[in-house]
Design brief:
Elements lengths: L2 H21 L6 H8 L3 H5 L5 H22 L7 H17 L6 H11 L7 H23 L7 H21 L4 H13 L6
């Protein structure tokens, strides 16, 4: 793909992301994306064949950007507890953020898809986050920062708590105090006794 084509494709994805944030997943049509991008229908179909294909690419782009921002914010000398705290702080920022997110569109997409196989992007993201948190916990245990007998189960539990908070933020709203309370509970369960 030429540099110009790659730029055009990225423009389409970034514009489509905004459309999905505003309308959700199930209400977006190819025409909506054509109109938002101000390109011809053929121009869009040159790159993508469906809103499903576009949305999957938008999710991949979103994950890559999130990973890049998180990695750049970690100081080189950071301890496992610092990195976990930074991760949880970023999750809190997303939960309480006022800017539109892809959360609603993502849930619509996956409820419609009912795809729970190994290619499910949400499952991959969840499993990847669990693995990263597990490694942080194991490293923290080795350094004496954390106490945890089952790092994998604890990491899964942290991600389930965060997933529940995401759903709550979209369905009934959530306060900063509630998010802080859950994050503190998670951290208190890991802090090694002195």
């Amino acid at each position: 793909m030429s540099d110009k084509s790659a730029q055009k494709k990225k423009y389409i994805l970034e514009t489509a992301r905004t459309v999905f944030m505003e309308k959700g997943y199930k209400n977006v049509t190819m025409k909506d994306i054509v109109d938002a991008c101000d390109i011809s229908r053929g121009g869009l179909y040159l790159y993508f064949s469906s809103t499903r294909e576009i949305f999957l690419e938008v999710l991949k782009l979103e994950q890559q950007e999130t990973d890049d921002v998180f990695e750049k914010s970690i100081p080189k000398e950071a301890e496992p507890s610092d990195i976990l705290a930074l991760f949880l702080k970023e999750q809190k920022r997303e939960l309480l953020g006022k800017k539109p997110e892809l959360i609603k569109a993502s849930y619509e997409f996956f409820f419609e898809e009912q795809n729970f196989d190994k290619d499910n992007i949400l499952k991959k993201q969840f499993d990847s986050a669990v693995l990263v948190i597990q490694r942080l916990i194991e490293s923290g245990v080795e350094r004496g920062e954390f106490y945890c007998e089952e790092p994998r189960r604890t990491a899964s539990n942290i991600m389930y708590v965060l997933e529940g908070l995401k759903i709550a933020s979209q369905t009934r709203g959530i306060t900063e105090a509630a998010v802080d309370r859950e994050i503190m509970y998670v951290m208190q369960g890991l802090i090694a006794e002195e």
